[in-house]
Design brief:
mainly beta; binds 2-acetamido-2-deoxy-beta-D-glucopyranose; DUF1996; 4 helices; signal; eight-stranded mixed β-sheet
């Protein structure tokens, strides 16, 4: 598998004791389903892009046997039948209509989707020596706030950010709101989940309360987990690259200086960045990989070809146009530019 700019990992390698894994998942389906927040609802509130195992459906009962019910996965790690999803981006033209922004895969030949990381220590730490516990069947979580429209509201999640990409390797700076200028190589959305588990609940009513951030410091600085959430888990990070290049002509942007991108649920600030995760690895495959020292290309992990990943697709069950020039966002969401509008 080829990664275009593995610049991060060319740093001198200290002896590893655990794994940092990074793999690509191609698009499974793009549609209005959300089994975590709107279980059973067809259609759900807003459009998502979903990757992973093909047992994904509108209900996703916690007892669902995701590896058993899936016949394929869109992830390059072929024992991962988890589902990962985010909202999708739309471009709003001057005449008010919307066009879905395509996604770029970070591997040659991949189809859209998400780059997924599981790490035991900070992304740039080449030792990965903190032991972490893998998630269990039935585990799921959410991060972010669909209603956030201010910096303070998103800052509580610490690490939901955007990178305005000059080229494929751009990783900084990260902002909490949408970039306010055209980004040559697209906009990367980074979603990092909290890393401290209460050790008991596989889920919680808001899909967040069973997880917490370190009591002091950060995951990156090795901060300790709070006593209420004592189990240190791996940090899950999604990178999603939105190919905004077709929409970068400043003449097509609003005359008042606003940026033109809007999430599928109407947020034009970017502060409502959020992500969903439903664990579905086969057996103890994830724990085994995490316990085997490696970075990115993990020999112990079973993988599949990009062609096989791309073959795994689902037909949308929600029959609606999400890709034309749309007069309104699917679901009828109004565009919100700030807290009071
Ligand atoms: C989703 O899959 C489950 C099996 O895990 C099945 O019982 C259920 O009917 C499916 N629901 C929908 C809405 O397709
Ligand atoms: C609105 O603008 C877009 C982009 O310029 C264009 O493709 C589309 O046809 C326009 N729609 C209408 C209804 O004018």
């Amino acid at each position: 598998m080829q990664w275009p700019t593995p610049a991060l990992f060319i740093l001198a390698l200290a002896p590893l004791s655990g794994a940092l894994i990074r793999f690509q998942c191609s698009q499974l389906v793009v549609q209005r389903l959300d089994p975590l927040v709107n279980p059973g609802m067809i259609p759900a509130a807003h459009v998502h892009q979903i990757v992973g195992g093909n047992s994904f459906n509108a209900t996703m009962d916690p007892k669902k046997d995701m590896p058993g019910e899936s016949t394929c996965t869109t992830c390059s790690f072929s024992e991962d039948f988890s589902n990962y999803w985010t909202a999708v981006l739309y471009f709003q033209a001057k005449n008010g209509t919307f066009k879905r922004v395509p996604q770029t895969s970070q591997i040659g030949g991949g189809v859209g989707g998400i780059t997924v990381y599981y790490m035991q220590d900070a992304l740039y730490d080449t030792a990965q020596k903190s032991k972490v516990t893998a998630f269990k069947p039935g585990f799921r979580m959410f991060v972010g706030d669909v209603y956030a429209r201010t910096k303070a509201e998103v800052a509580q999640f610490r690490q939901l950010t955007y990178t305005c990409m000059e080229n494929q390797g751009t990783r900084a700076p990260e902002t909490l709101d949408f970039p306010n200028k055209p980004c040559k190589a697209g906009i990367m959305v980074n979603a990092r989940f909290p890393t401290c588990w209460d050790g008991k609940n596989l889920d919680s009513p808001d899909h967040m309360a069973h997880m917490a951030y370190p009591a002091s410091g950060t995951f990156e600085s090795g901060g300790p987990c709070p006593s209420t959430h004592p189990v240190r888990m791996s940090q899950v990070l999604f990178e999603v690259v939105w190919d905004t290049s077709k929409f970068n002509n400043k003449a097509d942007w609003p005359d008042d200086g606003r940026q033109p991108f809007v999430w599928s649920f109407g947020d034009a600030t970017g502060y409502a960045n959020h992500a969903d995760y439903v664990f579905g690895w086969k057996g103890d495959a994830l724990q085994k990989i995490l316990d085997t020292p490696c970075v990115v290309n993990c020999a112990g992990a079973k993988t599949q070809t990009t062609a096989n990943m791309n073959k795994c697709v689902q037909k949308a069950v929600v029959g609606e146009d999400i890709d034309g020039w749309l007069t309104e966002l699917p679901g009828g969401h109004k565009v919100q530019y700030g807290p009071s509008s």
